[in-house]
Amino acid sequence: MIALASDHGAYALKETVKQHLQARGLEVKDFGTHSPDSCDYPDFAGPAAQAVASGECDRGIVLCTTGIGVSITANKVKGIRCALLSDLMSARLTRQHNDTNMMALGAGVVGEMLALEIVDTWLDTEFQGGRHQRRIDKMMAYEG
Fold first, then answer.
1. How many Å is the Cα radius of gyration of the chain?
2. Contact 17/4 with Cβ under 8 angstroms?
3. Which phi and psi angles does 54 have, rounded to 5°?
4. Which alpha helices (DSSP H) does the chain contain, by range?
5. CB neighbour list of residue 62: distance below 8 Å, 6 or more residues apart
6. pLDDT tens readout for residues 54-113
7. Complete domains list, the chain, with CATH
8. Cβ of 40: how many Cβ atoms within 10 Å?
9. Which of 8, 57, 64, 82 is catalytic?
10. For the residues 120-139, what does the mean pLDDT come to?
11. 0.85 exceeded by the pTM?
12. Strands 2-6 and 28-30
């Protein structure tokens, strides 16, 4: 199951991503927001990240206008490795090398078509393991 969340600035793109994920046959848990009315992104990105960290959801996608606020929020949750993505190479490498369990998109940064390509690349790329696991272990040790 994919956790999905956005604020008002990315509401329309979240809805497009949700439809895309469902068309791929994936189950989605939508943490909101559920309208384009002004809201605070931590209220939605935080619970989505907690669902991924707890194992309730396998991975998560969070969105806001830049993707910055939701990615920072998600990364505050222990166990989360959320990458802010705006290109296909980063989407691929963050899965291969960093085993990210969440990704963030900026609706004002990437268009709809690129956003969906980034989502697909991120979902379809497997972690390579090996030397990368050692680095992830060192990274996660900083959580304290």
1. 14
2. yes
3. -80, -15
4. 11-23, 42-54, 68-75, 88-96, 112-124, 131-140
5. 4, 5, 6, 41, 44, 45, 48, 49, 70, 71, 73, 74, 82, 102, 103, 104, 105
6. 999 999 999 999 999 999 999 999 999 999 999 999 999 999 999 999 999 999 999 999
7. 2-143 (3.40.1400.10)
8. 13
9. 64
10. 95
11. yes
12. parallel
Which is catalytic among the residues 20, 39, 97, 132? 97
The answer to whether the bond into 33 is cis (omega within 30° of 0) is yes
CA dist., res. 89 & res. 122, Å (int) = 10
Distance CA 6, CA 9 (A): 8
> Residues 3-25: what's their mean pLDDT?
98
The two three-digit tokens of residue 25, written as one number: 């046959």
97 flagged as catalytic: yes
Query: Which residue is it, tokens 């900083």?
Result: 142
